[in-house]
Design a protein that fits this description.
Elements: E1 9-14, H1 25-33, E2 36-40, H2 45-48, E3 56-61, H3 70-81, E4 86-91, H4 101-110, E5 114-118, H5 123-130, E6 144-148, H6 163-169, E7 172-176, H7 182-189, E8 198-203, E9 211-216, H8 217-225, E10 233-237, H9 244-247
Parallel strand pairs: 1-4, 1-5, 2-3, 2-4, 6-7
Antiparallel strand pairs: 7-10, 8-9, 8-10
Helix pairs in contact: 7-8
Length: 251
């Protein structure tokens, strides 16, 4: 039984890590056909030019303390869809990888709004490939884990990420959204990993401002405490970082 009550629909689209050419073909097609586009802070402006000139474009922010609250974004998506519009919710990276895309889709479905998702290239996948640091490599790393550097404040302590336990159980650890907490993260990891454990900090992945810092876990702690890890960054911890010289030799 179809319980939809709106004539329009919402498509949650992953825009990829920042390079406008890294959106999927399917995602680009949806963007070009959208009647309305709600987009986040990290969406490149060149990509927005692909939308129809007549489409409604709404910036919703998503930097802490900036933009629309999540509840307001949900209601706006519902409102636009119930006006009969084809709405694209354009999110950086992949909508289901720390993107809250699932929250938006569940809300819409609970309100009888048709909603589906187009995946995008996550920032950690792009960071590994574009910064020449494989997440897995035979004989070096057969497992990796991706964790958030910060978590929702209302999360119960027993449900928060046990990063020390995770670091002990995988070969490579990837931290997203961890710039502001990188010093604290390094302190926690130093309890279970050697201080000379290789670390890469990939910043502004896939954009013209992309940069990579190669350091150690103790170096990450020092940089983090000084506030020198810039947002947005992907932090990769493990011996795979050593492979970068062979894959992307410095000139």
């Amino acid at each position: 039984m179809d319980n939809t009550r709106c004539q329009g629909r919402v498509l949650i689209v992953g825009a990829g890590p920042g390079d406008p050419e890294l959106i999927t073909v399917k995602g680009l097609k949806a963007l070009r056909n959208a009647d309305a586009v709600l987009y986040d802070r990290l969406i490149p402006r060149e990509l927005l030019k692909e939308a129809k000139p007549t489409s409604l474009k709404v910036y919703v922010g998503k930097r802490p303390g900036e933009g629309m609250p999540q509840e307001e974004i949900n209601r706006l998506l519902e409102k636009l869809a119930c006006r009969g519009l084809f709405v694209v919710r354009l999110k950086g990276g992949d909508p289901f990888t720390f993107g809250r895309g699932e929250e938006e889709c569940m809300y819409l479905k609970s309100k009888g709004v048709r909603c589906s998702v187009i995946p995008g290239v996550p920032s950690y996948v792009a960071a590994a490939a574009l910064h020449a640091i494989p997440l897995t490599s035979r004989g070096v790393s057969s497992t990796f884990a991706v964790v958030p550097g910060r978590e929702a404040g209302d999360k119960a302590p027993e449900r928060r990420v046990k990063i020390e336990e995770i670091a002990r159980s995988v070969d490579t650890l990837v931290v997203l959204m961890g710039a502001s907490t990188s010093g604290e993260i390094a302190e926690r990891l130093l309890k279970v990993l050697p201080p000379d454990t290789p670390v890469a900090i990939a910043t502004n992945v896939s954009t013209p401002n992309a940069s990579t810092i190669i350091t150690t876990l103790s170096g990450l702690k020092e940089l983090g405490m000084k506030g020198e890890v810039k947002n947005p960054s992907v932090i990769i911890v493990g011996d795979v970082v050593k492979l970068r010289d062979r894959l992307y030799p410095e000139s």
